[in-house]
Every structure is written in C-alpha cells, then in structure tokens.
C-alpha cells in the first residue's frame, strides 16, 4: 500500500510530488498518456517564478521531475481506468503497470489536454517547436 498517489505530471502534480517526497512520504506518480501535461508542448515560459529569462516548457517539466525523483518520488507509466473512493484505502485500477494500487491519499491533478486544430501544417508546426 502507498501513502500517497498523484495522478498527473504537469506543474501541479510535480509540485505536489516534490513537497510530498521532501516530507518523506514517498509519493507514487502515475504519468498517464501525456507526461508533463500541456507544459511539455509549450515553448518559452516567461511567467514562471525563478526564471527571469524564461525557460522552455519541456525543460521546466524535466527539472521538476528530476527534483521530485531526487527526494524519493516514484514514477509509473500507466492509465487509471477506475478508482474506488468509497472506502479507505482507496483502490486504483491502473492499466500498464500490471495491477491495482491501494493508497491512503490520492491527489488528482490531471489538468487539461490541448485541442489541436486539424489544419494543414498544424501538427508539423507543433512538432518542430518542441
């Protein structure tokens, strides 16, 4: 059984992972299908504290992930298909990791998904910048 499971690896999920790991709670982070969230698709981020000259979105996500791992967060790549919140410990059915996870606490920080326009050259432009 885990103490804390975090769903989502965007800035909110990774920040939670950093703080929980620093508190020696050994969080397990489920990455899902879009590791890093929308920030992974973002070019220069100029409004994040501590980076006066800005930072590229994927680099910021990588830094946050590495910091969380440094303090003891564990990352698992899978997709949660069902969660039983009716009793503790909570049970999560996770596809891709070979079984269920039980946890005392659950943080859901799944954020949003970008809606790409289906226009000529749209996908080419996005992939060229990332």
Largest β-sheet summary: 6 strands, mixed
Please tell me how large the radius of gyration is: 16 Å
Report the average pLDDT across residues.
88
- The third-level CATH topology is FAD/NAD(P)-binding domain
- How big a fraction of the residues is strand? 25-35%
Shape: globular
> N- to C-terminal separation?
37 Å
Low-confidence stretches: none
Descriptive account of the structure:
- The protein is an alpha/beta fold and 130 residues long.
- The mean pLDDT is 88.
- A hairpin with a 5-residue loop joins strand 6 and strand 7.
- It has three helices and eight strands.
- It has one domain: 3-Layer(bba) Sandwich (FAD/NAD(P)-binding domain), CATH 3.50.50.
- The chain is globular.
- InterPro entries: FAD/NAD-bd_sf, FAD/NAD-binding_dom, Ferredoxin-NADP_redctase_2.
Summarize this structure as a short list of keywords or feature phrases:
single chain, 130 residues, alpha/beta, two-stranded antiparallel sheet, Thioredoxin reductase, FAD/NAD-binding_dom, FAD/NAD-bd_sf, oxidoreductase activity, flavoprotein
In short:
This protein is of the alpha/beta class and about 130 residues long. It contains three helices and eight strands; from the N terminus they run βαβββαββββα.
Per-chain topology:
Layout: E1 2-7, H1 11-22, E2 28-30, E3 44-45, E4 55-56, H2 57-70, E5 74-76, E6 79-84, E7 90-95, E8 99-108, H3 122-129
Parallel strand pairs: 1-2, 1-8, 2-5
Antiparallel strand pairs: 3-4, 6-7, 7-8
Helix pairs in contact: 1-2
